[in-house]
Write a structure and sequence with these properties.
By secondary structure, this protein is α/β, with parallel strands linked by helices. Helices cover 43% and strands 13% of the residues. The chain is built from 15 helices and eight strands. The chain is globular and about 50 Å long. The structure holds zinc ion.
């Protein structure tokens, strides 16, 4: 924790999510998540699983989900079966988020608290241009003013910056200032250099770092950022190196989560329908590594699974 490592560079092309988008959205790489089939390799992990409530801090309900096979009923059914009791809902376009947040009775019946975030995307093209498009700020302000039946929007994002230079663009600056002033959290899929830049624009904003560095930011650099920015929180979907032998945590991440139990969140990242199809197994994967953490420190597992999100958003205790 003491040493200051040299800053690693993440080549833009090393970002697997960018490659997926550029390649036209191929199937999700379940293998890298060790999540898919509960078959051979996973069977050795034993049956240890974190049994408590889970908050899913990275959930999309994009139009191909609700226009396709994943109705609201399907989605709330999956959340309920997975034991997910709270979600950050954010979607391209924002209609998906609104439909989740406005389905208050269904959410109550499923025991799910919906925490809505405004996404910056009307369509896929916006992923690669929002940071240079001032109309995105208007979109955000309109959405914030409208709110939802589940209450006001609590954050902005997920947004992507595939080139960290765009973290210094006018729209990113404006939105980080807005988040800081309005007490909104920000869910950002960015590299470590962009974390520094975004925090400089909105030092008071709570930045949820989607995937905690999907390009594999070295753990020592993640620690350095967590120490420098008390409002930085890591979300762990797709985090390279998180999962080790037999579905538990890798040694590096067991150490990380034990050292910073109040700074991480669980996420599913339902960015394509394949992720919705696999939703329960994605959450089950998280329950496996949470059990590994609980074996060292049960309170740390509870924090990562639920309490950190509850503190962040003032959530009621799940019944
Ligand atoms: Zn995402």
């Amino acid at each position: 924790m003491a040493a200051t490592p040299t800053r690693p560079r993440m080549p833009r092309t090393a970002d697997p999510a960018r490659r997926r988008l550029v390649a036209g959205l191929a199937a999700a790489p379940f293998a890298t998540l060790a999540s898919g089939s509960p078959g051979a390799a996973r069977a050795q992990a034993g049956d240890a699983r974190w049994p408590g409530p889970i908050f899913d801090a990275h959930l999309h309900y994009n139009d191909e989900a609700w226009m396709g096979p994943h109705s609201l009923e399907d989605v709330f059914g999956r959340l309920q079966r997975a034991g997910v009791r709270g979600i950050i809902a954010n979607s391209r376009p924002n209609e998906g988020t609104r439909s989740l947040a406005n389905a208050t009775e269904r959410a109550r019946a499923a025991g799910v608290t919906v925490v809505p975030f405004v996404r910056l995307y009307r369509n896929r093209a916006d992923y690669n241009s929002w940071f240079a498009d001032p109309t995105i700020v208007d979109l955000v302000n309109t959405e914030l003013a409208a709110g939802t039946r589940a209450g006001p929007y609590r954050g902005l994002g997920e947004f992507h910056l595939y080139d960290n230079v765009n973290a210094n663009g006018p729209v990113a600056r404006q939105l980080m200032r807005l988040a800081d002033e309005r007490g909104l959290a920000v869910l950002a899929h960015v590299d470590d250099v962009a974390v520094d830049r975004l925090m400089a624009h909105g030092p008071g904003a709570r930045l949820i770092w989607a995937h905690t560095g999907i390009g594999g930011t070295p753990p020592e650099r993640v620690r350095e950022l967590l120490q420098r920015y008390p409002k930085l929180i890591g979300e762990l979907s797709y985090r390279p190196g998180l999962i080790g032998e037999a579905g538990g945590l890798s040694p590096a991440w067991r150490e990380m989560l034990s050292a910073f139990p109040d700074r991480f969140l669980v996420g599913s990242d339902t960015w394509v329908n394949q992720r919705w199809m696999a939703y329960e197994s994605l959450i089950e994967t998280a329950r496996r590594w949470l059990a590994d953490l609980a074996a060292i420190d049960p309170r740390a597992a509870r924090r990562v699974a639920w309490d950190n999100a509850a503190t962040l958003f003032g959530l009621p205790e799940p019944g």
